[in-house]
């Protein structure tokens, strides 16, 4: 393994100043030919290479971007990260990925770590626990480039890229209604998240359109975003134990949807005979479930791409960016057996 030499080490070995070494390596006319040759030959001998982090500090660019997500293993976020990387690497940027595991404290630490790595900008999807966005407000006010995607901070005026969560939820709920279900519950994430609010509004709008009353008892929130299996199981059991038990459930996120199927199977509840299902998920395996699952898919890869394009455009802008956009991309409803009412 090669020992990593710095300009300081070369200066010490040759008995000259660090500024002399620095200028000699750059071929500055201010340094005599003999000194220049001495420094350059020694640098070659010890296999000296410029430190890319030190260079980035000098020109204020590291050519890296930080990504904050809840969990890389989540199908949606793994696809979004692929989209992020496809754009970033082609434009000469490295990607540093961090996971919050739905913890606000971990999110805060992750952001501070990314800043210590001198990233040029941040791509952020908030954790389920995050209600305080002051660290992002501070950075945004200082002109630091931030783009939110999926789970956004509505109180910060910066670029955002999201799926059409309202329409996705509306379409899935209306499909359940048109299949003949009227008692429809909604299992979803923490109320802190923008996606939760938008999907709940879409759910309520579909019920209202078809003259079905929204019942607060049919709404179950999992505050940890599906990271805690027991929390999901408790919510599912609570719905099943109701006197006026729901006939169908619309599920508002990826991990909740997958785990709900597992829990119902464990409890001996047959889908869709005993309980029909439709949910948000980007998992590729749900069509292999028994029965295959009706889902709302988000264009995660494209969302990652769009968010990265906006971030790098902001980073490379010669002037402070003051006009920001919220890009909303369409979801896709895929109907399968889990949402059908069997005769």
TrEMBL record:
Transmembrane segments: none annotated. The keyword DNA-binding applies. Residues 5-49 form the HTH cro/C1-type domain. Residues 5-59 form the HTH lacI-type domain. Keywords: DNA-binding, Transcription, Transcription regulation. This is LacI family transcriptional regulator. InterPro entries: Cro/C1-type_HTH, HTH_LacI, LacI/GalR-like_sensor, Lambda_DNA-bd_dom_sf, Peripla_BP_I. SMART domains: HTH_LACI. The keyword Transcription applies. GO terms for molecular function: DNA-binding transcription factor activity; transcription cis-regulatory region binding. PANTHER family: HTH-TYPE TRANSCRIPTIONAL REGULATOR GALS, LACI-RELATED TRANSCRIPTIONAL REPRESSOR. It holds the Pfam family LacI.
């Amino acid at each position: 393994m090669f020992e990593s030499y710095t300009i300081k080490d070369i200066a010490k070995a040759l008995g000259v100043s660090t500024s002399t070494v620095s200028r000699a390596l750059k071929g500055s006319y201010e340094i005599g030919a003999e000194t220049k040759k001495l420094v350059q030959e020694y640098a070659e001998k010890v296999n000296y290479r410029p430190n890319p982090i030190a260079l980035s500090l000098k020109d204020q660019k590291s050519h890296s971007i930080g990504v904050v997500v809840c969990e890389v293993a989540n199908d949606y976020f793994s696809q979004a990260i692929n989209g992020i990387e496809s754009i970033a690497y082609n434009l000469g940027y490295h990607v540093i990925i961090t996971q919050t595991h739905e913890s606000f404290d971990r999110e805060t630490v992750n952001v501070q770590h990314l800043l210590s790595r001198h990233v040029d900008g941040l791509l952020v999807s908030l954790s389920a626990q995050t209600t305080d966005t002051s660290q992002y407000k501070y950075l945004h006010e200082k002109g630091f480039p931030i783009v939110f995607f999926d789970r956004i901070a509505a109180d910060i005026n910066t670029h955002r890229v999201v799926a059409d969560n309202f329409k996705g939820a509306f379409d899935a709920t209306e499909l359940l209604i048109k299949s003949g279900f009227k008692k429809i519950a909604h299992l979803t994430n923490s109320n802190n998240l923008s996606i939760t609010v938008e999907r709940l509004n879409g759910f309520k709008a579909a019920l209202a359109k078809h003259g079905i009353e929204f019942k607060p008892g049919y709404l179950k929130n999992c505050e940890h975003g599906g990271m805690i299996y027991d929390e999901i199981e408790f919510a599912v059991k609570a719905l099943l134990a109701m006197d006026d038990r729901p006939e169908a459930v619309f599920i508002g996120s990826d991990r909740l949807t997958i785990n709900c199927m597992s829990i119902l199977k464990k409890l001996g509840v047959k889908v869709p005979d005993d309980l029909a299902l439709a949910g948000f998920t980007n998992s590729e395996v749900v069509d292999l479930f028994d029965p295959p699952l009706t889902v709302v898919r988000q264009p995660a890869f494209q969302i990652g791409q769009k968010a990265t394009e906006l971030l790098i455009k902001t980073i490379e802008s010669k002037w402070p960016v003051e006009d920001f956009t919220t890009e909303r991309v369409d979801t896709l409803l895929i109907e399968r057996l889990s949402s059908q009412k069997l005769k």
